[in-house]
Design goal:
Strand order of the largest sheet: 1-2
Number of strands: 2
Distance between the termini: 31 Å
Radius of gyration: 22 Å
Strand content: under 5%
Helix content: over 70%
Number of helices: 14
Largest sheet: 2 strands, antiparallel
Shape: globular
Amino acid sequence: MPASTWQGERTPDLLRPRHAAGHARVTYIELFFDLVFVFAVTQLSHSLLKDPTVSGAIHTLVLFLAVWWVWIYTTWVTNWLDPDKTPVRLLLVALMLAGLVLSASIPEAFGAKGLPYAAAHVVMQVGRSAFMIWALGKAHPGNRRNFQRITFWLGLAGLFWIAGGFADEQARLGWWSLGLAVEYIAPSVGFATPGLGRSLSRDWDVEGAHMAERCGLFIIIALGESVLVTGATFAELAWTPAAVAAFVLAFTSSVALWWVYFDKGAETASAKIAAAADPGRTARLVYTYIHLLIVGGIIVSAVADDLVLAHPNAGAEGSAMAIILGGTAIYLSGNVLFKWATYGRLPLSHLAGLAALVLLAWPAPQLTTLVLGGATTLVLVLVAVWEAISLRRGTPAASHFEIE
């Protein structure tokens, strides 16, 4: 996703203008594009809910990693391109169409629709990168060379994706895992390419505040999906006391998830990346990689809410226990890393929350899903309250453990 700085050169027509004061706003077409990923996130949560086995979890994980990578690469590209320009808008519309095919294929991606899923993924990844090469033209040879490297790596990964689309289910997982590995390793090695060299993070001229806002909006999308799942499931149930209690817990959990991320963390991270000496490195670590855990935790938590709503009196054992505790644990772990990378400190409230979840695993098999869901929600609320009170008192040492 890197592109070297164009400051001091004539800005090509399709690139965003950079302003000394303020940051590039998120445009309506970018938000419109994100609607496709509301569908994708819904499909992912439903896939895990339908098959909450180890195999189903692995398949959902592979598809989630792929969906996130498509979205974050597009976010990097629109950090440089101006979405108000007609060719860029047409690019995003074309990516939306391919994204709908990709999202619609998710439930049967490891079945009959493996090839359509793989083809949509490759078209989005390679096509978007090729567009950047054309958009940059000869005005910025450094940027163009970077996207030639990116296209090489995405094209290489695409071979594995297409091969997996033709393979049977067991072999497909192996091929697609190789494709994911190529795509995820590429940024960390600077997209090193024979004959083209590699790029450095300091060359990645990223508009930090825009990147932070885009990722924050994706968190909203994921949280919105969990609210949709909660509302849709509750609407179809008989409103028994157990169902109403599960509904209130699910809503409270969504609010606590929002609070933990947005109360202070998102704003602080935006300011940090905007002022960073090497914003490309920060964007790669914090928003490209660490946010995976945060979004993944929200998706698994949405599945947990649906499980509790549908079966509040069932035993919380096996996959139900793993999903209910795991969603919250993944989310808190992502926020621990997010705030550590932002503040340089580990948030004690989050670490205490993770410790509480570990302790809950002991009695969990003897509890109902409603009771275990209530306990995890209480943990989230306490984490949010602890951090909020500590930060508002202006005593970060009380809420964070500094790492030397």
